[in-house]
Amino acid sequence: MLDTKLSQISLNPDHTGATTNPIYLATAYEHEGVGKSTGFDYTRTKNPSRSFFEEAFADLEGGYQSFATASGMAAVQLCCNLFNSGDEILVSFDLYGGTFRIFDFYESKYNVKFHYVDFNDEAALKNHINNNTRAFFIEPITNPSMEKTDLKPLYKLAEQHEILTIIDNTFLTPYLSQPLTEGADIVLHSATKYIGGHNDVLAGVVTVKDSELAEQLFLYHNMVGATLSPIDSFLLLRGLKTLHIRMDRSIENAKKVAAYFNGHKSIKDVLYAGTTGMLSLRFNDNYSVNKFLENIEVCTFAESLGGTETFITFPFTQTHAEMPDEERLKRGIDDTLIRLSIGIENADDIINDIEQALEKSIK
Q1: What is the pTM of this model?
Q2: Which of 41, 135, 186, 243 is in Cβ range 3.0-4.6 Å of 164 for a Cys bridge?
Q3: Is the dihedral of CA 197, 199, 200, 204 positive or negative?
Q4: Residue 328 annotated among the catalytic residues of the structure
Q5: 96 carries an active-site annotation
Q6: How many domains does the chain divide into?
Q7: Of 202, 223, 240, which residue is a domain's last?
Q8: Host domain of residue 37
Q9: Are residues 58 and 204 in the same domain?
């Protein structure tokens, strides 16, 4: 069972009997002779601690190979290296602002075209596909509007047109979803979030379904060098051991929070897909987000997600700040929207904190 597998990750005793994988800080590894190697030569190329995590994660994903990167954005950038000038990528219309930013950079610098589409509108999607279309880049639950996308028909469509499917599975994790087993080609995560789970590690991970993609990404991973450090690899392994427990509790809490504020006098919209610990709230016009954020006490106003603590983020000035105003407003990202990463605290404490802050935020 997956929960047993998660709980026992890194339980690979060596000759010492240690029940946790060691941290290998060595940057170089001795060769017994010319052409002879232990499998480890230089830590940028391969490190035992990173390999422990990558092998465990590929197994969780049902994939061929994983590549641990120095951040979630490094994971997105690693995938971008697969594309050439003139290639076209179809992307979830609503998505993380940092991803929008790097795609904008690749478009202006390298002439890779990114088109933002509604993946739930099959007719419109088909109209965007042409001979230059190389990939779908999909957030199955979008950030921050929490719009849910049905992936199965997209896998079929991509296969028909020989298009890669790249899934940003950060919100769901392998515990809730394993896209590679269903038809995806590449799955990536900002492992800083739920995978690490404790707001103490910056990391990303990309997993592929076959050896051909693995060979390509291995070359880019090693060449660019945005690889994960041994200590951070150890922290991700530690985080995975409690992933299922943390996810179950955050989802339980998120459902309670969403239900409580649905129809609340101060909340215009509750945006919740029902399957994660992530949700967004849109305030009524007579409530001030600024005042609200100044008055929260149990929750934390911070720019991240997926930790044990409940974080509240203001996309308008944080995660999507560098997105042009026109693009933000098209996506409904304005000064009335907040995004919540619901933690594992007592649900009533979270709800009561939001309630008391709302009472102090009337304009």
Answers
A1: 0.96
A2: 135
A3: positive
A4: no
A5: yes
A6: 2
A7: 240
A8: 2-240
A9: yes
